[in-house]
Specification:
about 400 residues; alpha+beta; 5-stranded antiparallel β-sheet; 17 helices; about 10% strand
Length: about 400
């Protein structure tokens, strides 16, 4: 990848980036306007693939935004969700020459002396950066997460493109008002660009999960890190996708471990890991779980954590008043009876696996492992009820749940 794939810095860079984003989205929106139903039929699937391919070539923050939107129920049609969720694994990597230039920019011209071994070929590439294997002077295997250049500039341009896309999408579905979604995505996206903040998140999770023997978190290496380079210990493991189809005890134990990796930080500390992309997990020998990415972390006040528990109790007991109180605590407004009933459909889907202490799958509960039918029903009922403005606190929590 050349430097020009992202932008040049400053105002000229923003203008170039915005022109590229506007071109991609403009073509998409023009074709979208010609569709009678958003995402319906073979034409919708083809258009979704075209958008994914265009974003993959564009790379950068807009890819991350698209991935986030793909996890907000009803924000995008099913065809788009399926395509956009594959963006991270398909992004191309920066070439070795460009990597060396970026590393020198972060650690200085003598950066190679700080790594007895450094692989210039990326071990993994994502929307905002890529990871390289290295060896520290103390002999520890390391992972160097290197951010792509000029991401601050790209964020400004891509958010303008996001505003355009959301305005058009709002014309097709009015069940979910997206103002708060946009604000939350911007806040989380800007935080993800700060690798020193991510290093602090990583250290926090190491402390929170210190008594969970089946969960491992990398150790950040501050002396080899900057705001755009995060160096951490390397954790060996297989991609979690390679273990998902295995039956028996191993699969069950892995499911329990993933459950604890999410719920222990949230219910005991009010801290939420908001990026559940499977590429952020690997499985250690023996079945333990590695958590690898801490860019999207949300800290919630105790009252909101309590509201999550209240909603569980409301679903379990059928207490409508308690459910309404929980939604108000989360920040939902104008809660008519119709809106509450529609939200309760979503709550029933999310909490149903927790209501009985037994082995079960989402497929057994809903007939659809991704909950597509449930999401479509909720959106249809919210549309009839006049729509709802999603609170900011709800966006990342729902994504992770």
């Amino acid at each position: 990848m050349s430097a020009s794939t992202i932008t040049s810095s400053g105002l000229p860079g923003r203008l170039v980036r915005y022109a590229r984003v506007a071109t991609v989205l403009g073509r998409f929106m023009t074709r979208l306007a010609g569709e009678r139903y958003l995402g319906a039929g073979d034409d919708g699937a083809a258009l979704a693939r075209e958008l994914k391919d265009a974003l993959g070539r564009l790379r950068g923050p807009l890819v991350k935004v698209a991935q986030l939107l793909a996890t907000v129920p009803g924000a995008l049609p099913a065809d788009y969700v399926a395509e956009l969720m594959t963006l991270q694994s398909e992004a191309p990597a920066m070439g070795p020459t460009f990597v060396r230039r970026r590393m020198a920019g972060e650690l200085g011209p003598d950066w190679r002396r700080r790594f007895p071994e450094f692989d210039p070929k990326a071990a993994a590439a994502a929307s905002l950066g890529q990871v390289h294997r290295a060896l520290g002077n103390d002999g520890r295997p390391l992972a160097c997460k290197l951010q792509y250049p000029d991401m601050d500039t790209a964020v400004d341009a891509d958010l303008r493109g996001l505003d355009l896309a959301l305005r058009v999408l709002q014309q097709y579905q009015r069940a979910l008002l997206t103002g708060s979604v946009r604000a939350e995505l911007e806040a989380r996206l800007r935080e993800e660009l700060d690798y020193l903040l991510e290093a602090r998140h990583m250290a926090l999770y190491r402390d929170i999960l210190r008594n969970e023997p089946r969960i491992a978190v990398p150790e950040p290496v501050p002396e080899l890190s900057t705001s755009r380079l995060l160096t951490m210990t390397w954790l060996e493991g297989e991609p979690i996708q390679s273990r998902i189809d295995r039956a028996g005890r191993e699969r069950t134990e892995l499911a329990i471990t993933m459950f604890r990796a999410w719920y222990v930080p949230f219910f005991e500390y009010g801290v939420l890991h908001g990026d559940p992309h499977l590429g952020n997990y690997t499985v250690r020998e023996g079945g333990g779980l590695n958590l690898l990415d801490f860019g999207c972390i949300r800290v919630f006040p105790p009252a909101l954590v309590a509201a999550v528990i209240d909603l569980y109790e409301a679903v379990r007991t059928g207490d409508q008043a308690l459910a309404a109180q929980a939604y108000r605590t989360w920040g939902f407004k104008n809660l008519t009876r119709e809106v509450i009933e529609a939200l309760n459909v979503w709550a029933q889907f999310v909490y149903e696996p927790l209501l009985e202490d037994k082995r079960q799958t989402l497929g057994e509960l809903t007939g659809d492992v991704h909950g597509r039918e449930t999401a479509e029903r909720v959106i249809a009922e919210l549309h009839r009820a006049g729509g709802v403005d999603i609170p900011r606190a709800f966006v990342i929590m729902d994504r992770a749940a």
